[in-house]
Specification:
Two copies of one chain form a homodimer. The first copy, chain A, has 328 residues and is an alpha/beta fold. The first copy, chain A, is globular and about 60 Å long. Chain A is built from ten helices and 13 strands. The structure holds calcium ion (2 copies) and zinc ion (2 copies).
Chain lengths: 328, 328
C-alpha cells in the first residue's frame, strides 16, 4: 500500500550530524524523529588539516553504517563553535577554544567528498534549532537557549527564526559582560559570562583550589587518572566546602545577570539552559531573575533542556527541515 | 491642477506628537517631512490626574494653532518612558522616573477628547522610529538606538521592524547590567548602565563632588540659580578635574560595555546615540567597542543622532506612517 511506503520512506530519512566542540568531535546518524541511531566520538584535533581529515573519515564510516542500519542520509549538518556564515557554509572566526578555525569553508570539502548537501551553523544556534524542532522550544515564538559547556554559547529565536545579525555575530551570549573588570576571557575581553560560569572557568577554579589543597572535603575523593573538573567543584560545594560554594555563587550570579541582560534586550518568553551544567544553573538563574529583572520580564520561564545532544540534534534538524521542505 | 492639490494635501498633513519624559511634557505639531512646526514644553506633573489633564490641555491648544498654521492633524503619537503595549495604547509600567504611570490607558481619554487616532510607544522605541524615518537609520535593516537623557532608553530595529519581545519589555537597554554589584538603579537592581551613565547618575555625582567642594576648578563657575548638572561634570573634567574625569571614564566604560553586550546579542550594523549626552559618549563608546567587542562585531558604526527631537519625531512618524498607509 502506498501510504505504508511513504511512511517507510519518511522513517528511514535521516541526517549525518557533526558537532565540533572545544573538546570533542562527534558524528551521529539521526533519524527524522530525532532518534540518535549511532554516535561516534573522538578528541577534536588541534590543527585544521587533522580536523578536516578526521571529519571526513568519521562521516565516511558513518555512511557505511547508515546503509547497514537502513538509514537514507539526506545531508550533513554541522554544528561548530565560532561564528558561522550559514549561507556560505563557512566558519568565519573562532576563539582559541578551537584552534586554526577561522575563514574555513566547511561546506565544499565535505560536500565534494560525500556528495551530499551540507549545512553549517554555530553550535549555540544549533542548540536553539534542536529545541525548536524536538525540545522545549516547539511552538514558542520568542525563546533563547544558553549552553554552558566547555565555553558558553547560545541562540536566539525571534518570531520563529534564528537571529543572525548583520555579521553573523548575534547570540554570542558567552561574551556578554557582567563586570567592568572581571576575569580574563578567551575572547580577549574581561568579565564575560563565559569567564565566570563556563565549564572551563569552573575547572580552572577547581584546579586552583585543589593545587592549594582546598578542594577536597570529608566524604569526597578524586580519581587519580582524571583531571579535576567543574563537577568536582559542585560536589565539594554540596559537601560543605565554603570556598567552592562562593565560587559557584559568583558563577551563578554572573550567568543570571547575563541572562537578565538578554531578557532586557530581546525579551523572550522562555530561556532554555543546556549543556552539562544546565541543571546546576537552573535555580541560581531563576533566583537572579527574580532579584534583578524588571517586573515585566519576571514572567519568563527558565527550564533545563531535556535533549540529550542539542548541538547534534540541531545540526540534524537543518538537514531534515531543508531537504524535506524541498522534496514534499 | 490636480497634482498640485495632492502636493498641497501631502504638505499640510501633520501629526501631534507628545513626549512624556522624566522631566518634561512636550507637545509638537510635526509636518510630513519631519519639520517641527510648533513646540510646547511644560514640566511633567507628578500625578496621573494632573498629567492627563495637562496633555489634553496642551493638545487642544496645539490643535487650535495647527488650524492657524494650515496643518491638517491626522492623529496623535505619544512617546513615553516606561513599558508600553502599543497595540492597546497602554503604559504597562514605569520606573519612578515618571510617577503614577503604570497600567495607564492613554489611547482612550486622548482619542475621546480630540477625536483622533492615537498611537503610544516607548520613548526609546520612538527614537528608533525617528532615526528610521528621518535620521541615520534610513534604509538600515538592523540598528540600535541608545538614548542617554535623564535615564537611558533604547530601541532595536531588526529586519526593518522594532523588536517588542514577548511582554513589550525588549530594548529596555538602560537596565542592561555591567556589574554584579555597582550603583543602585531606579529599577531596584544594581549596576545597570542607567545607574552609571544617565544624566541623573552623572548629576548625582556632580552634586556629590560639589557638596564636598571638589567640583569647581579654575576657569569654571556655576550659575547660582541652576542646579548642578551632568554638563558641569563634563566641563570640570575638560578643565582638568581628575575626580570628574574618573567618574566620566567609568560612565563611558559602563555605557560602552553595555553596548557591546547589545552587539553580542542582536549584532546590529549601526548604533545611534541620542539624548543630551550623545556627543559626549560617542568616542568613549567607540573606544570600548574596539577594546572589548568580538572581532566580528568591530565593523559596527557608532554615530550621534543629528535629529533635534527623536522622541517627538518618532511619535509623529507612527501617525504619519500609519494614517497615510491607510489613505493612499
Ligand atoms: Ca550563537
Ligand atoms: Ca525601549
Ligand atoms: Zn569573552
Ligand atoms: Zn536598572
Amino acid at each position: 500500500c502506498i501510504s505504508q511506503d511513504i511512511d517507510h520512506i519518511l522513517e528511514t530519512q535521516s541526517a549525518l550530524a557533526v558537532d565540533l566542540g572545544g573538546t570533542n568531535l562527534r558524528v551521529a546518524i539521526i533519524s527524522m524523529k530525532g532518534k540518535i541511531v549511532k554516535k561516534y566520538t573522538q578528541a577534536n584535533p588541534k590543527t585544521y588539516e587533522a580536523r578536516i581529515e578526521l571529519i571526513l573519515k568519521m562521516c565516511s564510516e558513518a555512511m557505511v553504517d547508515a546503509v547497514r542500519c537502513n538509514c537514507r542520509v539526506l545531508g550533513v549538518g554541522i554544528s561548530t563553535g565560532g561564528r558561522v556564515n550559514p549561507q556560505e557554509g563557512v566558519v568565519l572566526h573562532s576563539t582559541k577554544l578551537i584552534q586554526e578555525w577561522s575563514s574555513v569553508d566547511l561546506r565544499s570539502p565535505i560536500s565534494d567528498t560525500l556528495h551530499l548537501p551540507v549545512w553549517v551553523e554555530n553550535d549555540g544556534n544549533c542548540a536553539a534549532l534542536a529545541e525548536k524542532k524536538f525540545g522545549h522550544g516547539k511552538g514558542v515564538e520568542n525563546f533563547v537557549t544558553v549552553i554552558t559547556g566547555t565555553g558558553i554559547g547560545g541562540g536566539i529565536v525571534q518570531h520563529n527564526e534564528l537571529i543572525h545579525g548583520s555579521t553573523f555575530c548575534a547570540a554570542e551570549l558567552g561574551h556578554i559582560m557582567v563586570s567592568l573588570e572581571g576575569p580574563e576571557c578567551s575572547c580577549g575581553s574581561r568579565g564575560c559570562i563565559e569567564s565566570y560560569a563556563s565549564g572551563l572557568a569552573l575547572q580552572k577554579e577547581a584546579k586552583r583550589l585543589h593545587d592549594e589543597d582546598l578542594l577536597l572535603v570529608e566524604g569526597m575523593s578524586l580519581k587519580k587518572e582524571e583531571p579535576v573538573s567543574a563537577i568536582d567543584l559542585i560536589n565539594a560545594a554540596r559537601l560543605g566546602n565554603p570556598k567552592a560554594d562562593s565560587i559557584l555563587r559568583t558563577a551563578g550570579t554572573a550567568l543570571g545577570v547575563g541572562i537578565v541582560n538578554i531578557l532586557h534586550t530581546v525579551n523572550p518568553s522562555l530561556v532554555i539552559l543546556s549543556g552539562v551544567l544546565a541543571s546546576f544553573y537552573e535555580s541560581p538563574v531563576q533566583q537572579i531573575i527574580s532579584q534583578r529583572a524588571l517586573s515585566s520580564a519576571q514572567g519568563i520561564r527558565v527550564v533545563a533542556s531535556d535533549l540529550e545532544d542539542p548541538a547534534l540534534l540541531g545540526a540534524a534538524s537543518m538537514v531534515l527541515d531543508y531537504t524535506t521542505r524541498r522534496i514534499y
